[in-house]
Structures are given as structure tokens and as C-alpha cells.
């Protein structure tokens, strides 16, 4: 059926014979503006989708196919990436690698390609592992939310919530008369019915596997490069970070809060919690794996080869660079100019962050919100305070 592909290719590229050869980077979708993005129910997408999806330059061929089948979802993928990047920068704001880069921008006949954090994403370092996992989690999160809000036509709320793994939330929508009733472990004797909208995480996960894993599987079969398995493992960690933290939330009904009847539904964790948990994995549970693989990844450390890699461990191939000095080849900004804290003994400590190069000190006038008061009802009023602060920045 090669001719179908050829015709598809020609019709998808009517006027641009030569696109520059660009790397794949799905994070580039973060720069997609709503007008460039496929999703708009008003437009007749079915006829144009493959053409328009082929313009999403950063996507690999599998991702372009997924887009063509399912164009509305791309806006949610983009949202997920933005959410992930925001939290990545928040988690790493005090570290030498701060989840930003000076990304390369290439103009093509289809528009601008922004290689957002592409070098880190493709690098198979520990930072690349975190970035991959958090972006995958963001994708699952926002696609699932798109299902729950009814804005995606191919999915909705989960109709079989009891097949998802979950824990109970303590917080109730309405205070029950007998709080002990809801302790964990009593689930089996509790009576409740499923109601409301349960987040359809199984759909989000399935979508992520197709959007992310299928290409890596295919490439691994071609070249046997361990980095594809590393990416796949980190996709898994990202997906599971959402799926393993599903909670059941309930609402009581009955005479004046007696909680005679209870309706429950499943919700995803807050994304800030997801980001925090992934940061802990990055700090404590990241495993370097061997470059040589046959079918499965194995730990690099000799004495530990027999230990299987667990689903809560991030994987990477290469030791991280120091991130101290700017290096455009590696997409590293360096820490020069970063603000640091004198003797904080944390990662933002001037000695650590500035890599021993020293730092400059200056006084700066800053305004902050202060003396905040709660005003009945319901706002918080603050004054603006002006402080003179000492600011240290790395040389
Ligand atoms: C879903 O679509 C409705 C309109 O149908 C819109 O008002 C709402 O903002 C959308 N929600 C999201 C999360 O996009
Ligand atoms: C950037 O890193 C590469 C790879 O480690 C190295 O070969 C190169 O010399 C570095 N460039 C600069 C300007 O430090
Ligand atoms: C990260 O550090 C660089 C300087 O090395 C700075 O230009 C950039 O604004 C920082 N990014 C964030 C999100 O703070």
C-alpha cells in the first residue's frame, strides 16, 4: 500500500518540497497557540486533519497519525505539557538545572519550530528522565480532564470506576455524623454507590501509550538503542504517577448529614503533588542503566544487575553534566546570573549554585504583599511593603 502513503504525502505537503531536517520534540507543542492548534469543533476537521497535523513539525510520524485520527486531543496534550513545564520549573527553581533552556527556533514554511528543552529531552540523563516523566504525567492528566469535562468526543467519565486502583480521601463534601465510619480499611463494609464523574485515567494512559510508546517500540526494533527503552520506562513512571494516586471522594446524603447514602467518584491527585512526588523519585530513585540491552533494561552497577528495575524508579543512561557553564551544544544555560542564597546549605547556596566561581552582591528595593488580613467575607487584603534586600547573583 505504499502508493497510499505517497499520495498522502503529496497531498499533505502541497507547497513545501523541502522542510529542514528537524529533531522530533513533542514538547514543542507547548508553544502552539490556539489558532494554530487543530482543535475547534466548528471547523470541518475530518477532511483537513491529516494535512494540518502534518504541520505540527515537532511530532514524529506516529504522533502525526494519532493527531490525524484524533485532532481535538492535541490541544489537551499541549496543555498537559505546559502544566508539566510550569511545575518542572517550580520544582527545580533552586537547582543548577532549572528546567529552562535557550531553545533553538527554526523557521519553516509551516511556521516556527521551537525545540523546547529538546536537548535535555533527548539526552537520556537524569534530568531528561524527570522531564519525560513529568511531561507524560501532564499529558495523561490533561487528556483525562478533557474526557471528564466532556470536551473530547472519544472519551467521557469512567463508567467502571471500580476497576481502577484508588485510595480514599479523608475530606468529605459534607461532614458525616460519625466520622469513624470512613476510616480506611472499612471499605468492605461501607455502602456507597458510584455517581458523578470519575476521572477516566485508563483512557488517558492508553492515549499516552499510543502517543509516546509506539514510536519508541518501533525505533528500538530498528536500532536496538537502549535510549528507547529508557524513554519508555520513564513514560511508564509518568503515567503511573497519576494512576497510582487516584482517590475516591464521596458526598453524603441523608437526613441532615447522616450519611445514610453516599455517592463516590474517583479523582486524580493535584498536579503539584504529582510534580513533588516525581521530584522525590528524581532525588532518590533514579537508576543508571547499562547501554547494552537485549530485551530489557538492566542496572549499570555490577553488583545490582540481578535486581529488577522497579516501576517507581526513573531510568537514565548518561551521567549528568555539571550544568555550571553555558554550553549551547548541550542546551545548557549555565548558572551565571542566577540568584543564590548566602550559606543556605541547600541547592540554592551561593557556593553550590555558582560552582565556586563566586557571586556579586547588590542591594535591591523589592515590594511584597504583607500584613495580609482576612476580610469578612471572603477576601484577603494585603499591604504592599517595600524592603531593601541584599541580592546575590552568580558570576
Ligand atoms: C469545554 O467546552 C466548553 C464549551 O463546550 C467550554 O466552556 C469549557 O471551557 C471547555 N472546558 C475545557 C476544560 O476546555
Ligand atoms: C559542550 O559540551 C560538549 C560535549 O560535552 C563539549 O565537547 C564542548 O567542548 C562543550 N562546549 C563548550 C563551549 O564548553
Ligand atoms: C533559569 O536560569 C537561567 C539562567 O541560568 C535564567 O535565565 C532563567 O530565567 C531561569 N529559568 C527560570 C524558570 O527561572
UniProtKB/TrEMBL annotation:
Signal peptide range equals: 1-17
Cellular location of this protein? Secreted, Extracellular space, Extracellular matrix
Recite the UniProt keywords alphabetically. Answer: Developmental protein, Disulfide bond, Extracellular matrix, Lipoprotein, Secreted, Signal, Wnt signaling pathway
GO MF: cytokine activity; frizzled binding
Q: What is its main location?
A: secreted
Q: Name one GO biological process term.
A: neuron differentiation
A cellular component term from Gene Ontology for this protein is: extracellular space
Xref: SMART domains: WNT1 (SM00097)
Annotated InterPro entries: Wnt (IPR005817), Wnt_C (IPR043158), Wnt_CS (IPR018161)
What does this gene product do? Ligand for members of the frizzled family of seven transmembrane receptors.
User: What is stated as this protein's family in its record?
Assistant: Belongs to the Wnt family.
Descriptive protein name: Protein Wnt
UniProt organism field: Mesorhabditis belari
Amino acid at each position: 500500500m505504499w502508493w497510499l502513503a505517497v499520495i498522502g504525502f503529496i497531498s499533505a505537503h502541497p507547497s513545501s518540497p523541502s522542510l529542514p531536517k528537524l529533531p522530533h520534540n513533542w514538547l514543542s507543542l507547548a508553544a502552539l497557540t490556539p489558532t494554530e492548534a487543530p482543535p475547534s469543533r466548528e471547523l470541518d476537521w475530518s477532511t483537513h486533519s491529516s494535512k494540518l497535523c502534518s504541520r505540527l513539525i515537532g511530532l514524529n510520524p506516529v504522533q502525526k497519525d494519532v493527531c490525524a485520527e484524533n485532532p481535538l486531543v492535541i490541544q489537551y496534550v499541549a496543555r498537559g505539557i505546559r502544566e508539566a513545564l510550569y511545575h518542572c520549573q517550580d520544582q527545580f527553581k533552586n537547582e543548577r538545572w532549572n528546567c529552562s533552556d535557550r531553545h533553538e527556533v527554526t523557521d519553516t514554511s509551516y511556521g516556527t519550530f521551537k525545540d523546547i528543552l529538546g536537548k535535555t529531552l533527548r539526552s537520556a540523563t537524569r534530568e531528561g528522565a524527570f522531564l519525560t516523566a513529568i511531561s507524560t504525567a501532564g499529558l495523561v492528566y490533561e487528556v483525562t480532564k478533557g474526557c471528564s469535562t466532556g470536551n473530547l468526543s472519544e472519551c467521557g467519565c469512567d463508567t467502571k470506576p471500580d476497576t481502577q486502583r484508588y485510595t480514599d480521601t479523608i475530606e468529605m463534601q459534607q461532614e458525616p455524623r460519625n466520622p469513624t465510619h470512613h476510616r480506611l480499611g472499612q471499605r468492605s463494609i461501607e455502602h456507597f454507590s458510584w455517581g458523578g464523574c470519575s476521572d477516566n485515567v485508563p483512557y488517558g494512559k492508553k492515549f499516552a501509550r499510543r502517543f509516546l510508546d509506539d514510536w519508541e517500540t518501533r525505533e528500538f526494533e530498528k536500532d536496538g538503542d537502549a535510549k528507547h527503552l529508557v524513554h519508555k520506562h520513564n513514560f511508564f513512571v509518568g503515567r503511573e504517577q497519576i494512576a497510582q494516586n487516584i482517590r475516591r471522594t464521596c458526598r453524603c446524603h441523608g437526613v441532615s448529614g447522616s450519611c445514610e447514602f453516599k455517592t463516590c467518584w474517583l479523582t486524580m491527585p493535584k498536579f503539584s503533588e504529582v510534580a513533588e512526588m516525581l521530584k522525590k523519585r528524581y532525588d532518590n530513585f533514579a537508576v543508571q542503566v547499562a547501554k547494552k540491552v537485549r530485551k530489557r533494561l538492566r542496572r549499570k552497577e555490577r553488583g545490582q544487575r540481578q535486581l529488577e528495575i522497579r516501576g517507581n524508579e526513573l531510568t537514565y543512561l548518561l551521567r549528568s553534566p555539571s550544568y555550571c557553564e553555558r554550553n549551547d551544544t548541550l542546551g545548557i544555560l549555565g548558572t551565571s546570573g542566577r540568584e543564590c542564597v548566602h550559606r543556605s546549605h541547600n541547592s540554592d547556596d551561593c557556593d553550590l549554585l555558582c560552582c565556586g566561581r563566586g557571586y556579586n552582591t547588590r542591594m535591591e528595593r523589592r515590594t511584597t504583599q504583607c500584613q495580609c488580613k482576612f476580610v469578612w467575607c471572603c477576601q484577603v487584603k494585603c499591604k504592599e511593603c517595600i524592603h531593601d534586600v541584599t541580592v546575590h547573583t552568580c558570576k
